[in-house]
Amino acid sequence: MRSDGDFPAEWGRTLVGEVFRDPDDEEWTFDDWQEITFPSVEDGRHGHHTSGSVAPDTVAIALDGEIVALGETGGMTPTNLYVYDTEYYQFLRLRAVLDPERWASLPWGPFRNGQLLYAWDKFHRQDYFRYPDRPPAPVGYGDSHQPGDAAVMTYGGDWYDLAQQVEREYPLGYRAEPAASSEACLIRATQDGDLAAVREQLALGTNPDIGAEPAGVHTSFCTRRASSPLAIARQDRRPEITRALISAGADERAQNAVVREPIDLAQLRPIGKPSLFVRLIYLVRPDLRLPFDRPQRRSGTSPHKRWWKGTG
pTM, whole model, 2 decimals? Predict the structure, then answer.
């Protein structure tokens, strides 16, 4: 990453990022998100949960040391679709292609101005390089061609869903991303109560009976939320969306309500102070287990492994 060079004044504050192919696994990647920001300043907004660093006005995209395109970057806080949580993202969006021939040699060749190229989950440190024919999978995540690998980003969305959010927060004046069927968009539209967006997704053929947690979403240490569109619509009392989903074939028996952890009622029962007699027994025979003792919790690791690699 470099910020030196004689750039045109209209580019403003400019950083140069290299797109390159990893010689080990032949996967493409881009500079880490930490490199696509200037040092922290008072008006910054792109750090993780702080004022952070400030994004450049222009990201010059270089291939083999030559600038082939211009992009722009910004920060996002997408809401997790499957648990009550918010993630911290940064994106790279195409602004203009300067060298069409060399640009066509990249996987990004088919994308047009305004479309997303790269995304970073800054908290979980996951990088997503966009390919035209693949679901989002973190850079370095096993074999992203195989089924069962990560199919969504850590917040539960796909490229189209993230693009819709970026366009709302950083409007272009036009819709850069071609309309596409997206389960994430249908879930989000239902959660937001956006009837028009729900109808658009159903018209595009999106399955209304969705909501199962896909591979790749981060749900650890968070309270789960309803993710079935029909269950969400009923829970939020949105009759028009409910009718639209049922008309599109949603199973009316779907009752994917908010998933809650089971409550141990024994933990809620107040425990009185042991009597003097009981305390005397413990002093004499501390190894003795009495019938009213609370059982000890077993220690051990959770059977649910984190899906991401190389993170804490």
Answer: 0.75
